[in-house]
Amino acid sequence: MKKWYLVFLIGSLVLNGCGALDRGPQMVNIRGVVFGTYYSITYYEDDGTVFDAEIDSLLQDFNSSLSFYDQESLLSRINRNEETRVDDYFEVVFRRSLEISRETDGAFDATVFPLVNAWGFGASERAEMTQARVDSLLDMVGYEKIRLEDGHVVKDDERVQLDFNAIAKGYAADVVGNYLESQGVDVYLVEIGGDLVAKGIKPDDSKWRIGLEIPAEEAEAEQQWHYFVEVIDQGLATSGDYRRYYEEDGRRYSHTIDPATGYPVDHNLMSVSVFAEDAMSADAYATAFMVMGFDESVSFVEDRDDIEAYFIFADEEEGFGYFVSSGLDLMSREDI
C-alpha cells in the first residue's frame, strides 16, 4: 500500500548538529530522490568520507529488485509469472512480510495491491467499485496463497500480485544503514520517504530527535508538530489517512485498504507512528495498525516488548486525540 509519509526530521537539529569539526568525527549529509520520494542520510565519519555514489548504486540495485513501477524489476517479472529466482533483497522482504501478515492475522498483506489499484491508489484509474467487483478482486488476495520454494515464488493463484510498497522503503533504510556499518560508520540516521532508522549517540552525546506531525486538515497543508522523540538504535515509520485520500459524494475514501473486506478502512485512527528494532518492521506494522484500528492496535502493541507506538485518533470534541504506548517517552516542543 502507498502511504503519505508523516514523520519528519527536526531539520536544525539534524543538519546543524556539529558542522565541520577541526577534529573528531565529521558530519556528512546526503540528500536525493529515489522510489518517487526523497531520502536524507546523515552520519558521522572520522574523515568525512561521502558515500553518495555507493549509496546511489545500492538504492538503484534495490529498486531493480523490489519496485512495482519498474516493469523490468524482479518484482514485476514475478507478478507477470515469469520464471525467475529471487535475490537477497526480495527474499528478506518476502519472508518478513509473511511473518508480519501472520502476526497481524492478515491486516498487513502484500498481496492486497489489486484492490489498492482498483480503488484508485495504485497505477491505474479508479474503477467502479461494486460489491461484485470487490468480491472478484478478493479472490486474488491472501498471503496464504503465495510462498517461497527453492528460491522461487510459488502462487496458488497465478493472478496474485505482490506490492511491497508498505514495507520496502523501511527495508531500504535498513539496507543503507547496514552498508554504512560495513564502512565503519556506527552513528547515523537514514530516512527514506519518512521511514527511518537511527543508530548510535552523536558526538555531542545527544540522540537523534524526530518530530511527529499534527494531523492536517488539507492534504497539501504544511507539516506541523508539537511533539518529538529521541531515537537510538531503532526504526520508525508512520502511516496515516489524512494526507492520501479522495472524496466522493461527501464521503472520504482512505488509501488504506482492508484485505479482509476489500474496502477502504473507516474508523477513528488517523495515524500511527511505530518504533521497532528495524525500519522494515516499523513500516509494515504501521500499515497493519491502520487496518486494525485504534483499539486492536493498542492491545497488540501493549502485549509486545519490541514495539512502541504513538497513535492519533479522531475525537468529536477536540478534533483529534493522542495515545502513547507505555514504553515510549514523548516530549513536547516546549522542551527544546
Describe the 3D structure:
- The model is unreliable at 1-21 (pLDDT under 50).
- The protein has 2 domains: 7-61 and 167-335, ApbE-like domains (T-fold, Roll), CATH 3.10.520.10; 80-165, ApbE-like superfamily (T-fold, Orthogonal Bundle).
- The protein is 29% helix and 27% strand.
- The strands form 4 sheets. The chain has an 8-stranded antiparallel sheet, covered by helices on one side. Strands 1-8-9-16 form a 4-stranded antiparallel sheet.
- It is globular, with a radius of gyration of 20 Å.
- It is built from 9 helices and 16 strands.
- It is an alpha+beta fold and 336 residues long.
- Helix 4 packs parallel to helix 8, helix 7 (165-182) packs antiparallel against helix 8 (279-292) and helix 8 packs across helix 9.
Which tags fit this structure?
27% strand; T-fold; globular; 2 domains; 16 strands; single chain; disordered N terminus; alpha+beta; eight-stranded antiparallel beta sheet; 336 residues; four-stranded antiparallel beta sheet
